[in-house]
Write a structure and sequence with these properties.
single chain, alpha/beta, 16 strands, globular
Length: 363
C-alpha cells in the first residue's frame, strides 16, 4: 500500500483553521520521505473537490479524502448525482471534527464501493490545543460495531449505554490517563503539555482488558480478524474512548440527549437524501414554563423545507432513539409526545446555523 500512487485531498478549511493546516503539514512530511503522494487542497469547496477527482482519478492508484463527516457525505452524494463513477475509483476516507457513526460508515461503503470498511474509512481524534492524538484502527472499528449491537458488551467495555468514539494511541508520543471520567493527556506538542485536561469524557483500555471482555462475551478475536481480512492490521496498543464534551448535550425531563443519539437518528436510512446530518440541539422553556427539546436540522442540497420532512424527522426520532436509549424509551412511555423534539428545518448552508466553509465541533 505504501507504494501506491495516492492523491490526498484535504477537504478541510485551511488558513486559521488548525485541523486543515495540520493535516496539510503532516501529509507534506510523509511526501518528503519519498512516498508517491500528491496533495490537493480545495478546502471545503465541493465543486472543486469533485472536479479534481473527475480529472485526476485515472492517474492515481487511490484517492484519500479527508474532511468533516457531513461535508464528505455532501460531496459523495453530489458526485453520485453527477454520475461520478465511484465504483471505478479506489477511494479511502478519513474523518475529523466528530465521530462518524457506524450507519454512516456503512453508507459510505455502499455509496463508494469500498473494498473493506475496516480499512477504508477511519476517524481521527484530535484538537486544536493538542493536535492529532489518536485514530481509529480495524480493531477499534470492530469493537465499536460489535458493542453497538450488544448492550452487555457496551456496558462492559465502556461503562455506558451509548457508543463512544474508539481510537488507539501510541503511549510513547501521546500518553492518556482517565480521572473521574475525564481524559488527561501528556504530549510533546508545540507547547509541551503535562497531564492536560482535554475536557473530553471517556476512558482507557489496554489490549489485555479488551481480550478479557471479548472472551467473556464468547468472541474469538483471532477468528473474527481473520474472517474480516484484518489480521495483519491489528495493533496491540492501548485504546482511548471518548464521548465528547458535555456542553453539546441537551436534556428533556432530566434525560440527557447526547450528540451521538441525534447522529444515530439522522443517519437512519429513511432520512437519506433529505438531511446532511448536521444539527443543533438545545433545551428551551416555553412561555408556559414547559421544557422543550429544540432540534435544528440542515436539509440536503436542493431539498426544500416541507412539513412532511419535518414530521418524518420527528417520527424517526421517536421510533429510533428508544432503540439505543432505555432512559428515553421509559420517558416516552411516561410523557408521550412531550419527549419528542420540536424540529426546525434549515436550508442547506443556512448562513445563521450552518454557514458554508465552517466546521463546528459538536454539530
Amino acid at each position: 500500500m505504501d507504494r501506491q500512487s495516492t492523491l490526498f485531498i484535504v477537504a478541510l478549511s485551511l488558513g486559521m483553521w488548525a485541523a486543515g493546516t495540520s493535516v496539510l503539514q503532516y501529509t507534506q512530511w510523509v511526501a518528503q520521505k519519498g512516498y508517491p503522494l500528491t496533495m490537493l487542497t480545495p478546502g471545503m469547496n465541493g465543486a472543486e473537490i469533485l472536479q479534481g477527482i473527475r480529472k485526476l482519478h485515472e492517474h492515481y492508484d487511490q484517492i484519500v479524502l479527508i474532511g468533516y463527516p457531513p461535508f464528505i457525505k455532501d460531496v459523495i452524494d453530489e458526485g453520485t448525482k453527477q454520475g461520478m463513477p465511484w465504483d471505478k475509483i479506489t477511494i479511502k476516507l478519513l474523518f475529523t471534527g466528530e465521530a462518524v457513526t457506524e450507519r454512516s460508515r456503512d453508507y459510505f461503503a455502499r455509496s463508494t464501493g469500498m473494498a473493506n470498511a475496516y480499512l477504508d474509512a477511519l476517524d481521527m481524534y484530535g484538537s486544536a490545543d493538542v493536535g492529532l492524538v489518536a485514530h481509529e484502527t480495524p480493531l477499534t472499528i470492530y469493537l465499536r460495531r460489535k458493542a453497538a449491537g450488544d448492550s452487555r458488551l457496551l456496558s462492559g467495555l465502556f461503562a455506558a449505554d451509548r457508543v463512544p468514539s474508539v481510537n488507539q494511541f501510541n503511549p510513547y508520543s501521546r500518553y492518556f490517563e482517565s480521572e473521574q471520567g475525564r481524559l488527561i493527556v501528556t504530549s510533546p506538542s508545540g507547547f509541551p503539555l503535562v497531564r492536560y485536561d482535554t475536557q473530553d469524557l471517556g476512558g482507557i483500555l489496554s489490549y489485555g482488558e479488551i481480550e478479557q471482555h471479548m472472551a467473556a462475551a464468547g468472541v474469538d478475536l483471532a477468528k473474527v480478524f481473520e474472517d474480516a481480512g484484518i489480521s495483519e492490521k491489528i495493533w496491540k496498543i492501548p485504546v482511548v474512548y471518548l464521548f465528547g464534551r458535555g456542553m453539546f448535550s441537551a436534556t428533556i425531563f432530566g434525560i440527557i440527549i447526547y450528540p451521538e443519539y441525534v447522529k444515530y437518528v439522522l443517519d437512519s436510512p429513511r432520512l437519506q437524501g433529505i438531511v446532511t446530518g448536521k444539527f443543533k440541539i438545545a433545551t428551551e422553556e416555553t412561555e408556559a414554563n414547559q421544557q422543550e427539546l429544540r432540534l435544528k436540522v440542515e436539509l440536503a442540497k436542493d431539498v426544500a423545507p416541507q412539513e412532511e420532512y419535518r414530521e418524518k424527522i420527528v417520527r424517526t426520532f421517536a421510533e429510533e432513539l428508544p432503540k439505543i436509549s432505555t432512559e428515553y424509551n421509559e420517558l416516552v412511555l411516561r410523557v408521550g409526545s412531550k419527549a419528542h423534539p420540536v424540529v426546525t428545518l434549515c436550508s442547506f448552508g443556512d448562513p445563521v446555523y450552518f454557514p458554508a466553509d465552517v466546521m463546528r465541533k459538536g454539530a
